[in-house]
Amino acid sequence: xxxxxxxxxxxxxxxxxxxxxxxxxxxxxxxxxxxxxxxxxxxxxxxxxxxxxxxxxxxxxxxxxxxxxxxxxxxxxxxxxxxxxxxxxxxxxxxxxxxxxxxxxxxxxxxxxxxxxxxxxxxxxxxxxxxxxxxxxxxxxxxxxxxxxxxxxxxxxxxxxxxxxxxxxxxxxxxxxxxxxxxxxxxxxxxxxxxxxxxxxxxxxxxxxxxxxxxxxxxxxxxxxxxx
Length: 228
Hints:
mainly alpha
């Protein structure tokens, strides 16, 4: 039986990656915390709709002020710049901790691979929909450090999944195929939001079950003689 225990160094490294978030500007010109929170919500809500409609690069601070109702003369009392708004939105939507992850779902040995993937993709395609769209569409316009933080978090997600598949499949931790499969599954978690235009006439549940079955078959192919 392979040793599926992670070394303490690796566990610490993955924990550090999992807890990374984008660094938001520390703005202290306004002391009223309730006002700050309300204004930032107005600004971020308006910016999100604009970023998804027009794209990050094409959206201006003037556009955000017009849609949010926040005066252009005072908006910098609540945010530093457009990139700061993007960081705040991604921290709320893409880095969110309340969405179920596949490694957590797979902790239940009684759930089939098909059911686990279906549950995970449903969660990803609904709860994290806007965050996924925003992250993938905005990557080319992010500052280098922000892009590195997103990549580090995605790396941790893939490693968590690979580690859980080690337990589920009974494979060795250093099996490189696990990293490849984990990468593909994380990519599929963005499939629904990113490919809406391809599924106009296909019910969501049909797409969900089909993708889940395909992911399960891919995982099972790593150990064809095992009953998983």
